[in-house]
Amino acid sequence: PGYCWPFQGSWSEVLIRLPTQITPTAITIQHTSKMASPLGTVSSAPRDFTVSVSLCWALGGLDEEGKQETLLGAFTYILQKGPNQTFPLQNEIPRGFRFLKLGIRSNWGKPGYTCIYRVQVHGKIVGRKAI
C-alpha cells in the first residue's frame, strides 16, 4: 500500500505502450484492499473508466484530435469485488495495437487524488516479435 500511480483529482488519462502489438481482449485494474490500507479506506480507488485505441497509435503516431479513436469499453471498478478486477473488452478490434488509452473518469470519493496499483492488458500477440 502506498506504492501506486497517483494522479491529482479523480480524472486522468494515460497512454499505455505495450511491448508488442496485441489484439486486446481484456484489462485488469488493481488497487489495494481495504484491509491492507493503512487508513482502512480505499476511496482513492478508480471508479468509472474507459479503454480505447486509435489506428494512428497503431501506426506509431497520435492524431491531433483523436477522431479515429475507438472505445473498447466503459467500466466500473467495484470496491466489494476485491483488489484485482478483470474486465472483458466490449468492442472487438480485428487488428493488433501497440498503445491503449486508459481514461479514469471518477474515483470512490477521495477529493485530492486517485491511485492505481497495476494495469494489465490481456490479448493475443500479433506476429512473433514479442519483446
UniProtKB/TrEMBL annotation:
Top-level lineage group: Eukaryota
Gene Ontology terms, MF aspect: protein-membrane adaptor activity
Cell compartments where the protein resides: Nucleus inner membrane
GO cellular component, one term: nuclear inner membrane
SUN domain span: 1-126
Entry keywords, A to Z: Membrane, Transmembrane, Transmembrane helix
InterPro entries for the chain: SUN1-5, SUN_dom
Major localization listed first in the record, in broad terms: nucleus
Name of this protein: SUN3 protein
Lineage of the organism: Eukaryota, Metazoa, Chordata, Craniata, Vertebrata
